Each structure stands twice: as structure tokens, then as C-alpha cells.
Amino acid sequence: MLKRYLITYDIPLSKRRTKVHDLLQGYGFRVNDSVFEITVAASQIETLTAKLEALIKPKDDSVRIYSLCLSCAKVAFALGKEPTPFEAQDTQI
Asked: Which residue range forms the structural domain that includes residue 77?
């Protein structure tokens, strides 16, 4: 079963920030400078979390992963800029 997540990060070092960005881009869509929406299976979020832990420096960096319930994800909306591809996928989850 697929689940939606919102992932945010605050990473001061550009090299690490770029690695985290590139990793997350392989899983979902960037919706803000340091914010991604992803839809993955439970096993994939475990793999992604392990990869993120390997990339960051816990004393300097922050990554937060928010699980979005299906009913919450379906009523989420955006203001400004064009919508993400996830808005078209809401009926598939």
C-alpha cells in the first residue's frame, strides 16, 4: 500500500544539501526550496530514511518526515505557482 509523506530539510552545507535534494528527487516532487512530497510503499520509506541518515550530519542538519493520512492528503491545497503532479494522483491513492 502506498502512503504519502512530506519531507523537509534544513542543511547548511551545500554539498550535503545537494545530495539530499538529489536523493529525494528520485522519490517524489519538490514543492518548495527544501520540501518534497513523496508517495511510496512502507518498505521504500525505510530505505529512504536509511539513505538520508547516511547523508546527513545530525549535529548540523535537520530532516523531518511527516506522514500524511489519505484523507488529509486529499484535502490539502496549494496557493500560487502551478500544482504538483501529486494533485493529479490523489484519486489513485
From this structure: 2-88
